[in-house]
Amino acid sequence: MTNINTQPTLPETYKQQIKQMLGEETEAFLQSFYEERTYGLRIHPLKWQLHKTTLEPMMSTFSLQSVPWCNEGYYYDSNTRPGKHPYHAAGLYYIQEPSAMSAVQLLDPQPGEIVLDLAAAPGGKTTHIAGRLQGKGLLIANEIHRERAKILASNVERMGCTNAIVTNSDPDTLAERFPMFFDRIMLDAPCSGEGMFRKDTDAIQEWSPDHVTLCATRQWDIIQAAVKMLKPGGTIAYSTCTFNYAENEHTIERWLDRYPDFTLVKQERIWPHKQRGEGHYVAVLRRASHLEDTAESPISSASVAMTSYATGDTSTRFEKGNKGKQKKAAGRKNNSSSNVDAVYEQFVQWTYEYMPDWQTPLSGKPILFGEELYWLPAPSDFSGEQSNWLEGKLNGLRVPRPGLHLAHVLKQRIEPAHALALSLLDPASASSSIQLSTAADAAAIQKYLNGEALLLDQDIQADSSEVAKGWTLVAIDGLPIGWGKLANDMIKNHYPKGLRAVYLL
Ligand SMILES: C[S@@+](CC[C@H](N)C(=O)[O-])C[C@H]1O[C@@H](n2cnc3c(N)ncnc32)[C@H](O)[C@@H]1O
After folding, report:
1. Binding-site residue positions for S-adenosyl-L-methionine
2. All domains of the chain, ordered by start, with CATH?
3. SAM-dependent MTase RsmB/NOP-type domain spans which residues (predicted)?
4. Residue 272's pLDDT band (boundaries 50, 70, 90)?
């Protein structure tokens, strides 16, 4: 690590708080402010496993070193820019501060489970959970702030999550809709951010003892909602990137006191003077399997069972958050279930030609937002009725991403969605593909990611057995990155305008 020889001015009350907590270690802690902050990335496990041999040489340019507490985590050299590399755009990894990777490692979500990330933007924990679920089960990632929810949705899309829904709700509203629904919940609470001080000196200006108290009060409110949504026998990870006791251990003590059906499974801290990370706190709590065994239950009725779901009203889906799009579609088509089925059938017909291995997921359902076709995910044991119930539960919420975006439906024409490309692990999923390599095709990669058309035999030497007229999947070192459309030896660029940029190779 480089010595940066500068130390930000820390509030005296903050230093006293640290001294009370750390005693003799205080000096070592304060010395850590002279060290450079840590940089990390967390890889997408399935994309990495499938293409490891091809990707490893390029990844070595970031001088990756394993993060000891996270299977998918790596430190990278701060002189490199993995966030500007095309692999980032292809969703191979997520840039994440290493100690923040401890939270999902400890939550330990399993494929097939129903998981909530309650305070999710920009998506570090969400995309980590999604990697662990491996596309099986259901992930609801929620963010209270509208703009941050959009960023969350775009990161979920970039990381190719197939089974994640992104909602933009306050925790209480969500709790009314999903009582005792989740097997696991991640609550990465908004906090006073003491662990951010090396990374972001603005966080120091915002810090005060009153701010710590305010954060603890807000955390307690969010916890009430989280508790309501956890199933009996479920697990919750509460985490912060702050050091003080009020927002961490004291909050957990209060929790255990108020809700005796919870037990503390473990709590861990990462300190910047002891480990290579900015600092994080994680507590894992488990709820008793039988609520009636507990002295006090926070939920008055345990009547919400998977068998008692009402069928959702599919005609008024999420109307609140999508008025604009609904309006646009008005008069041209309606989103009745027969229309959705017809549009989905049109998409299936499209896959016969362009993605012959596509299989309709066994659970969940297609849904239509104006001109956008999505697949609403559901755990594999969900019946059609339960998927309808889930859809109904989203009704009236803002839902920036109701599932996997499959296609734009334009006047009876299907255009595959960018999210669909990023959800694919292998270019062979498409009947036609252009395979670019960082070693040989740097100029063509820049052109594509900049939104320019590619000319066959000029920009790229494509293998004629892999390229065919029409929709073509573009891949970099085996990682699908977007769509193009081939006609007359030219690939028309369908890389989304908002993502076009100059990347570093
Ligand atoms: C620590 S950040 C989450 C980081 C995220 N989990 C990640 O790993 O990328 C906390 C989030 O809580 C949100 N938040 C703020 N006030 C909130 C509230 N009252 N209820 C729920 N979430 C809130 C913030 O907008 C912020 O996105």
Report:
1. 119-125, 143, 170, 188
2. 100-292 (3.40.50.150), 313-419 (no CATH), 426-499 (2.30.130.60)
3. 29-305
4. very high
